Amino acid sequence: MYPDLSVRKVLIYRTGSLGDTIVALPSLHLIARAFPNAERVLLTDLPVHPKAATAMDVLGQSGLVHRDMRYAGATRNLGEILRTLREIRSFRADVLVHLMPRALLSDARRDRAFFRIAGLRRIVGLPGEIMKNRYDSTTGMYEPYASLLARSIAELGDAELENPENWSLHLSAAELESARRVIVPLAGRPILVCGPGTKMQSKDWGVENWRALLARLHARYPSYGLVLIGAPEEADYCAYAAQDWTGPKLKLAGCLNPREAAAVIKYAEAFVGPDSGPMHLAASVGVPSVVVFSARERPGVWYPFGKRNQVILHQTECMGCLLQTCIEMGKKCIVSITVDEMERAVHAVLSPIAKATTIPL
User: Fold this and answer.
1) What is the CATH number of the domain that holds 241?
2) E strand or H helix at 96, and its extent?
3) Do residues 206 and 339 both lie within one domain?
4) Per the structure, how many domains does the chain have?
5) Rounded distance, CA 39 to CA 210, Å?
6) By residue range, what is the domain housing residue 247?
7) What is the pLDDT of residues 289-339, one digit of tens each?
8) Which end of the chain is least crowded, N or C, by CB within 10 Å?
C-alpha cells in the first residue's frame, strides 16, 4: 500500500519540545517515506516555557515536516478551540497521522471525535486499544517511547528503529561547517560535551557532583577539550560545574539552538549530562551518552537510543512517581548516585577498548 503517492496533504499530530520530538524521529521518517509527495504539517502545542525549543526548532529544514500549526495545549478556552478547528479544516488534509498514543480509551475517543469534527476522515495512529509501554520481565525494562510511537502507526510500515538513518535530523553541510568553526578554539583535541543543567528539580544531580565529576575527568583525560551546553538560564550552573577544568573549554550554554547543539555534539567523543533533551540530540547524531537518571520515570522509557550509552539509575520504592519537584523523599534516587559511578561509566565509553569493540547505533 505504501508509499502512497496520491496523498497531497498530511497533518501530523505530535506535541512536546526537544526530547519529545527527537524520540519521534523514526516515526517521522516513516511518515515521510509513506507519503513522499505530501505537504506534511505538524500540529503541535505552544511551548509551556517561553524559552523552550519548539518542534520546528529541532526539525528545521530536515524536510521531515514542512511547517507547523500551533495551538494552546490543555486549553478550555472555547475561542481557542474553535480557532484550531477552523485552521485544521482549512488545511484540508487527506490524512491525519496521530502520534500521541493514549493510555485511556476515553482520551483516544475524544481525539477521534475532535478530528472528525475538524473534517478529517482518514486517521492513522488511533487504534481501538490503549497504548502503553510494554514491560520486558527478562530485562526489567519498559518499551522505549520511540518504539511505542512507531507501534502506534505500524500500519504505515516498519519504522526501523535500529537504523541510525532513521534518527537523523538531516543536518546540512552548512550547519556542520558552522559547528566546526565554533569548536576551532579546541585545536583538534578530542571533545567531551557536558550539559549538566536541567529545568526539573527532580532530575538535578547537583552542581557540586558535576563539578567533582568534571574535575576527575579532566585529570583522567587531560588531552580532551570540554564544551558546555544548555539553556541561557543554565550558563552560571555550567560555569561553576566546570570551574576546575583548567584545560581548553567552550562555554556555549545559551549560545546554540537545538540543531546547532546537535552539530557540535556530532564532533564529540561523548555527551555527559542528566536525563534531558541534549542526550536525545546526541543519540540523533550517533554519539554515546553517559546519563544520570532519576527514578521519576519507569526504566527504559526515556533512555537515549544507542548501544554505547551508559545510563546510571538507582531504582527506589518510589520509582515512577513522575514528580517534577521531589521534597518528601529528598530525591533519594538521584542523589544516591555517586561521582565514582559516573566516572566509571564515562571511562567505559571513552576507553580505547570500548570504542574499538562496541557498535554505535
Assistant:
1) 3.40.50.2000
2) strand 95-98
3) yes
4) 2
5) 45
6) 181-357
7) 999 999 999 999 999 999 999 999 999 888 889 889 998 888 999 999 999
8) N
Q: Is residue 21 part of a domain?
A: yes
Partners of residue 44 on adjacent β-strands:
70
Whether omega before 3 lies within 30 degrees of 0, making that bond cis, reads yes
Alpha carbons 196 and 136: distance in angstroms, whole number: 30
Please tell me the distance from the alpha carbon of residue 221 to that of residue 226, in angstroms, as a whole number: 10
On whether residue 189 sits in a domain, the answer given is yes
Q: 270 is written with which cell numbers?
A: 561523548
Half-sphere exposure of 50 (CA within 13 A, CB side): 1
Residue 275 lies inside a defined structural domain of this protein: yes
Same domain, 219 and 151: no
Q: Please state at what angle helix 339-350 crosses helix 207-220, rounded to 10 degrees.
A: 40
Report which of 74, 132, 127 is spatially closest to residue 103, judged by C-alpha positions: 132
Question: In this predicted structure, what is the pLDDT of residue 357?
Answer: 38
Q: Is 2 domain-assigned?
A: no
Question: Which of 145, 167, 189 is a domain's end point?
Answer: 167
Q: Supply the DSSP string of 29-55, one letter for each residue.
A: HHHHHHSTTSEEEEEEEPPSSTTSPPH
**Average pLDDT value for residue range 60-81:** 91
* Strand-pair partners of 97: 12, 124
> Are 324 and 257 found together in one domain?
yes
Shared-domain flag, residues 101 and 186: no
| Residues counted in the chain | 361
CA-closest candidate to residue 126, choices 153, 162, 145, 148: 153
Which amino acid appears at position 35 of this protein? F
8 A C-beta contact, residue 301 and residue 144: yes
